[in-house]
Write a structure and sequence with these properties.
single chain, alpha/beta, Alkaline Phosphatase, subunit A, 13 helices, 18 strands, about 15% strand, disordered N terminus
Length: about 425
């Protein structure tokens, strides 16, 4: 007899499907991993052949990064616009970025900059840049999962960090991501693979003991004929639960210390490292939210009661520079960059004028983003801002065009596949990057 909390299971007399699912924790928050597998399998049946094998790591710079202190500096303007920092040359002749990003300056030939993104929403929200459409909560990751499905033994869509308010949206609960609140431990307890939400973890001695007991449960069940009577999706769910591949992919403790240090011993750096491990193992879409600590960890540099521009110099840009450059190098070293799209963006930019606190406020009317990998032409610069960084001066880019470009780079036919239309409307991918 195996006891989990107050539930006793008689191994010698066979198990019901619900017994296995409850102990395995597949039924979490009303969702069934088996139902997710069923839905994703259906999507995989008609997935675009072009997109198979392509993945995306979406780096969400929560709070709205200043484009003037990152990818679009204005060195020839007064201090009230330029701010306290200068610009530096990059590996692309004629392209300069902020002096706060020296590692990325050496790698600009690997990435493309978009300097003319714009929309009209100045409140903190992942909409529209993570969906493409104001008022829409269906994320890029959910759409990619729907259209491509998955055939690997890995969850196809993973979110690292606290919740953002976007996910499955109109596609329904099976397309929500697996959520990993904190990657910095050596072991990660995944919600879809954890105990049911109404059972407290302190009712069990150790995570390893729990995993071992579930393994014994599964082995004993497989020894009989109970699991054989389940449909294929419940069998797949039970199998994924104890998959060694899943455990290994989420275990940063398997990386050597020097590589972990290269990414940065912080939330963002370790999230980037986990994302690389996940796409290497077969996950299709990983999105990372920049930090989940106090407000001053985010890119919302108003000044006033929080640190202002000095956070750009001492905290924000150094960690972005280290983590992103390490991710690019690591993916390239493993021959994964050609099949992995990296997207870097926040909800908006910052005001072209320094405010009375010596910092910058919200500015959705012109801002920047980065794309790299998956065939994106390195060194490209799409659009330009005006002389103060206030408005697009050439080639304005909308969130829908940004979304369409992501989908195109991931192998979705954004012209002829009618399934993508609700998510990009009439937009087409940026021809400069598609």
């Amino acid at each position: 007899m195996l006891r989990h909390g107050s539930a006793s299971l008689r191994m010698c007399q066979g198990l019901t499907r619900r017994d296995v699912l409850q102990v395995a924790g597949i039924e979490l928050l009303g969702l069934s991993l088996a139902n997710q597998l069923r839905a994703r399998s259906a999507a995989a049946a008609d997935a675009s052949a072009n997109g198979r094998g392509r993945s995306c790591i979406f780096l969400w710079l929560d709070g709205g990064p200043s484009h003037l202190e990152t990818w679009d500096p204005k060195p020839g303007t007064p201090d009230t616009i330029r701010g306290p920092y200068g610009s530096i040359s990059t590996s692309i002749t004629g392209t300069e970025i902020s002096e706060l990003l020296p590692l990325m300056a050496e790698r600009m030939h690997k990435v493309a900059i978009i300097r003319s993104l714009n929309h009209g929403i100045d409140s903190h929200a992942p909409i529209p840049m993570m969906t493409g459409i104001p008022g829409e909560s269906t994320s890029h990751g959910a759409v990619v999962t729907k259209l491509h499905g998955f055939t690997q033994s890995m969850p196809p869509y993973v979110h690292i960090g606290s919740r953002l308010g976007v996910g499955a949206g109109s596609l329904g609960a099976p397309y929500n991501p697996v959520e990993v609140p904190d990657p910095t431990g050596s072991q990660i307890q995944l919600p879809d693979f954890a105990l049911r939400a109404d059972i407290k973890a302190d009712r069990f001695l150790q995570r390893q003991e729990l995993l071992a007991s579930i393994d014994r449960l599964r082995a004993d069940a497989l020894a009989g004929r109970t699991v054989e009577k389940m449909d294929a999706y419940y069998q797949s769910a039970a199998s994924m639960l104890t998959s060694e591949k899943v455990r290994i992919a989420f275990d940063l403790g398997r990386e050597n210390d020097s590589l972990r240090d290269r990414y940065g011993n912080n939330f963002f750096g370790q999230s980037c490292l986990m994302a690389r491990r996940l796409v290497e193992a077969g996950t299709r879409f990983v999105q990372i939210k920049w930090y989940d600590g106090p407000a001053w960890d985010a890119w919302d540099v108003h000044g006033a009661d929080l640190g202002g521009m000095e956070r750009m110099e001492h905290h924000l840009c150094p960690r972005l520079d280290q983590g992103l450059s390490a991710l690019l190098d690591d993916l390239e070293d493993r021959d994964l960059l050609a099949s992995t799209l990296i997207a870097v963006v926040g909800e908006f930019g910052r005001t072209p004028n320094i405010n009375k606190y010596g910092a910058r406020d919200h500015w959705p009317y012109c801002f920047s983003a980065l794309l790299a990998g998956a065939g994106v032409p390195g060194g490209a610069v799409v659009g330009t801002s005006d002389k103060t960084g206030a408005r697009p001066a050439r080639r304005p880019v909308s969130p829908l065009e940004f979304a369409a470009t992501i989908y195109k780079r991931l192998g979705i036919d954004t012209i002829n596949d009618p399934r993508i239309r609700p998510f990009i409307r009439e937009a087409i991918a940026m021809p400069e990057l598609a």
